[in-house]
Amino acid sequence: MPTPETEPERAPGPGGGRFAVVDPATGEAFDEAPDMRPDDLDAVIGRAHRAWSGWRADPAARSIALRAAADAVEEAGDDLTRLLTREQGKPLSESSTEVARTSARLRHFADLTPRTRTIDDGRPVHSEIRWRSLGPVAAIVPWNFPLQLAAAKFAPALAAGNTVVVKPSPYTPLATRMLGSLLAAVLPEDVLTVVTGREPLGARLASHPGIRHVTFTGSVSTGREVARAASASLARVTLELGGNDAALLLDDADVEKIADRLFWAAFRNCGQVCMAVKRLYVPARLHADVVEALAQRAKTVAVGPGLDPATQLGPLNNAAQLARVERLTRQALADGARAAAGGHRQDGPGYFFAPTVLADVPPDSPVVTGEQFGPVLPVLPYRSLDAAVDAANGTGFGLGGSVWGTDLDRAEAVAERLECGTAWVNHHAELSLAQPFAGVKDSGVGVAGGPWGLYGNLQPFVVHRPREA
Ligand code: NAD
């Protein structure tokens, strides 16, 4: 087994290059990572292919190894947490939760095995459905939850008997590299490899003929490129893409009771959550109260460097994301929106944007119709519930949605009308490891999570034989 020192991808990029990693709380580079050349993937994927034959052969050994991997993540929890906060920006408490979810995923999938089934359809034939692994899987991951999303891909893929090549975002390569080193010490050699580098590394990985499944999380536009790239080898594709989740308040909502939960559903991880509440539809009668309750929280939440234990909201992850959020907010303000809180970037170093609550936003403003992915929440009044449901469903996205009210049956009946993969009543973005996770419309292709995630990494193999000799 490789030690972290001998692991190939830990050498200075095979091409010799390295790239800087920036601390979003200061805007300054604090470390660097290897910038792998796309051509060097041939060797990595070749090794992943050779490691596959041993790994796929023994499900019991896989379970044991994945449990050991979960233990290793837990033991290194503090180091992973700090490094994740340093490169991603989120508060330590959120990084710690992310690390815990990373080990929980490994444990969850360590215990899942595919079920062999027989077909009993009256024919004089014994037919059995078995499951086979696919081969090397490419896991391409964004910067908002680098560890948790990587684990959401490699845990089911490994449990199914595949080997995996993980490529984190160049904005957040370091915690994933640390995770890769930890897991290399407990998994057989080359079963899991972390590669880091700038584009076109991801594009090359997605199109590589040795990859049999590309599982990608990221933006809709890159998702389309990944699908195109993978079509060259006809590899299976799973895409978990952007969202623009709506939350709908009903007229019986208890504003003070739900305000905290609603606020954090929009602002956690500085709004950089695919399933954050990104638009809030509120009965006109409650609009002023809701804007006030959320604005008051936005003005008083502790914004600062994630490494400060008092911080509740960190910076945005990178300069491009800050510029995007600023542009969308400025446009909304120019179009007539009012900032009840925030509305501008914060003075000083780092990628900080003041938590922003927008009222009087034109419904066709890009901050409403697109995915702003930042600490900005437009609050839109409605007079007709049907019109509000139509507006909630009126974008190309369909990841999640929520309905908030006191009458739970009525709220659930409205949630049933949302065009999305997961809906909540009086909550948002809380997922179970055991649930299927899928977006509709532009928000995704394929199903991850629970047994669906496992079978998404498997190929059915059917054997028929006569019942009698
Ligand atoms: P992104 O699409 O820019 O990048 C995602 C990953 O793809 C990164 O590793 C990036 O380096 C890589 N990449 C870039 N170009 C590529 C190419 N041509 N081929 C292959 N890989 C390429 O996304 P991001 O900005 O890192 O992350 C934010 C986006 O991710 C948001 O849209 C967010 O909604 C989405 N997201 C979705 C989910 C979900 O589960 N649906 C979860 C988290 C984030």
Task: Characterise this structure.
The chain is an alpha/beta fold and 469 residues long. It folds into two domains: 264 residues, 3-Layer(aba) Sandwich (Aldehyde Dehydrogenase, Chain A, domain 1); 181 residues, Aldehyde Dehydrogenase, Chain A, domain 2 (3-Layer(aba) Sandwich), CATH 3.40.309.10. It is built from 15 helices and 18 strands. Strands 12-13-14-11-10-15-16 form a seven-stranded mixed sheet, sandwiched between helices. A hairpin with a 4-residue loop joins strand 1 and strand 2. Helix 2 packs antiparallel against helix 4, helix 3 packs across helix 4 and helix 7 packs across helix 8. The protein is globular. The termini are far apart. The structure holds nicotinamide-adenine-dinucleotide (NAD). The site of nicotinamide-adenine-dinucleotide has 30 residues, from helix 7 and helix 8.
Quick summary:
This protein has 469 residues and is of the alpha/beta class.
Topology (elements, then pairings):
Blueprint: E1 18-23, E2 28-34, H1 41-56, H2 59-75, H3 77-88, H4 92-110, E3 117-119, E4 125-133, E5 137-140, H5 146-159, E6 164-167, H6 174-184, E7 192-194, H7 201-207, E8 213-217, H8 220-230, E9 236-240, E10 245-249, H9 255-267, E11 277-283, H10 287-300, H11 319-334, E12 338-341, E13 356-359, H12 366-369, E14 376-382, H13 385-392, E15 400-404, H14 408-415, E16 422-425, E17 444-445, H15 450-455, E18 458-466
Helix pairs in contact: 2-4, 3-4, 3-6, 4-5, 7-8, 9-10
The chain binds nicotinamide-adenine-dinucleotide (NAD).
The site of nicotinamide-adenine-dinucleotide (NAD) has 30 residues, from α7 and α8.
